[in-house]
Amino acid sequence: MAERAEIFEVGPRDGLQNEPRPIPTAEKIALIDTLSEAGFRRIEVASFVSPRWVPQMADGAEVLAGIRRVAGVRYAALTPNLKGFQRALAARADEVAIFGSASEGFSRANINCSIEESLTRFQEVTEAAREASVPVRGYVSCVVECPYDGPVAPADVARVAVRLFEMGCYEISLGETLGRASPEAVAAMLEAVTAEVPADRLAGHFHDTAGRALENIEVALGFGLRVFDAAVGGLGGCPYAPGAAGNVDTIRVARRLAGLGFETGLDMEVLERAGAMAHRMRGAHG
Ligand code: HMG
Ligand code: MG
């Protein structure tokens, strides 16, 4: 039997958060409802961040209230602090994610605090989540390069990843935020991180600015990672990482994983439909 690899669909969150056109809530719900039929176990659908910082994600509660929840799918949301966690809990998110950075410059630009301050806030979130029995995922951004500070040392990534892991994150997603890392740099980073956090608790989150995300996924497979974040239609970018393109396209990742002999459990026909919807949502600048 083929070995399993999982794609964590992040299009409705990481994909849409950067779209300049205000996307109607109903369109987001329709995309998520289609994705729910594709066979994902986890879909990131909302961010409970400041609506002044990321207006596109202001309707997270309405999105979570409007979707058709399919059994076996966990609907996830980003929560930068306790306020975000409480909003996510009220909206019945099945799991939440805290999101830190391996570089100080991105931490300040993205969540307006130092790495150390962010870890204190995240500790509060993980404690509240434990109390409420909500699983928490952790992101580390800028695992190879930062738009503000330049190259990031692998040891800095490992240091933040292990702190998130120790505070109770069930999985740490390693964000190659700028999407232009070389496979060699990704390997050096994974060498350091897998020495601290088991590979089966790590996920790869590759943006695809330079078109090397699939190569980098193969590198990560070699280190034992089996979970990869991707966005249907290659949607996205981060508002606080200027110039970064979207996440690697879910369909391309599914095809590559299948070609390498991994079973993703995804229905390609449904994914194609969701991909077409995502392209339409992208509108004029896509
Ligand atoms: P701040 O201004 O430092 O926060 O922002 P604050 O605690 O001083 O509060 C200021 C105001 O924001 C207050 O309102 C708070 O109530 C409100 P006021 O009293 O002025 O009316 N506020 C909130 N409102 C709603 N929900 C909340 C919340 N928290 C405070 N949770 C904050 C700090 C983190 C909130 C802000 O910097 C923020 O929202 N940043 C958004 C970051 C973001 O969403 N970035 C994109 C996602 S990360 C990403 O894409 C990378 C990833 O994909 C991995 C990768 O690719 O690398 C994950
Ligand atoms: Mg991202």
From TrEMBL:
Listed Pfam families: HMGL-like
Span of domain Pyruvate carboxyltransferase: 5-272
E.C. number: 4.1.3.4
GO BP of this protein: ketone body biosynthetic process; L-leucine catabolic process
Membership in a protein family: Belongs to the HMG-CoA lyase family.
Name of the protein this chain belongs to: hydroxymethylglutaryl-CoA lyase
Keywords: Lyase, Metal-binding
Origin species: Meinhardsimonia xiamenensis
Pathway of action: Metabolic intermediate metabolism; (S)-3-hydroxy-3-methylglutaryl-CoA degradation; acetoacetate from (S)-3-hydroxy-3-methylglutaryl-CoA: step 1/1
EC class name: lyase
CDD domains: DRE_TIM_HMGL
One annotated GO molecular function: hydroxymethylglutaryl-CoA lyase activity
Source taxon at top rank: Bacteria
